[in-house]
Amino acid sequence: MVAERAVDEGRTDAIWPGLRYYRFSSPIRYDKTQTLAPGIVVVLQGRKSARLGASTFSYDEMSCLVLGAETRCDGTVVEASPGQPYLAIHMDLPPELLVKTFIALADTAPAPNGGTVPNYVAPVDERVLDAFTRLLPATDHAIDRATIAPLVVEEIVVRLLRSDAASAIRDAAAIKRSAARIQKAVQLIQQHFRRPLGIAELADAAAMSPSHFAHTFREVAGLAPMHFLRNTRLDQARVLLLAGGKRPGEVAAMTGFDSAAHFTREFKRRYGAPPAQYARQLASAQPQSI
């Protein structure tokens, strides 16, 4: 299923935001350091190592890497060949869904074993793998993306947070104290990302001091609040670009960026190509209706 979607070497983005596939037919080291959001990487074939901060992780077929927070990453595909290419799925874990699920599970989820760790490698849970086999075809058609895919993504997040992988995602005690207040700031960003928003206003929504809010938001959501605001704007811009009919400058103005140049720079950093080029590439790679 992934081999059919990852037809080109390197990264292939899915229509579903934050979901991408990787194919490499030979060992390769990434030339640039990436900044990765909280997410999960499932390796289906081959082997890879990744340096995340001061630690190096190795993971191979039917194992997964859970990224608990925004982190710098240098990656190397160690095992791959034309006959057996490296194949992997990488999906960002939406911070707003993490916070919502933390609140729902606060009193029921078991405490993770061994305390909080920044990242986590383990064999992929069969239930998580099954969810991915349902998610991928659910991203192929607009009606399924609107109805089925969100439920499957939520299932993946719930299963991760009920497993030992939760120790890589967050400290349960900190979540129980702060998630509900952080959720108010998350909702403010989602509703008003088109206008200027600063730390002071977001902190006020969470009833915290600005410095305490910035620290707590990262602790709960896995990335800095202004990074979440930027990513929210970029994700919405991506939706508008893929819908067609609007130029990058128009999209930039509609999603809260102060200039087209700033928008283009941030979009390329997140998605690997300038806005117009990215939209053309993804449209040509997706025969289904978007």
UniProtKB/TrEMBL annotation:
The yes or no answer to whether the keyword Transcription is present is: yes
The record's listing under InterPro entries reads: Homeodomain-like_sf (IPR009057), HTH_AraC (IPR018060), Tscrpt_reg_HTH_AraC_N (IPR009594)
Which Gene3D superfamilies does this chain map to?
Homeodomain-like
Drop me one GO molecular function for this one.
Answer: DNA-binding transcription factor activity
Q: Which residues form the HTH araC/xylS-type domain?
A: 183-281
The cross-references to SMART domains, in alphabetical order and at most eight, read: HTH_ARAC
Residues annotated as transmembrane: none
- For whether the record's keyword set contains Transcription, the answer is yes
Alphabetized, the UniProt keywords read: Transcription, Transcription regulation
Q: Out of the domains of life, which is the source?
A: Bacteria
Q: What is this protein called?
A: AraC family transcriptional regulator
Name the species this protein comes from.
Massilia atriviolacea
What does the organism's lineage look like at the top?
Answer: Bacteria, Pseudomonadati, Pseudomonadota, Betaproteobacteria, Burkholderiales
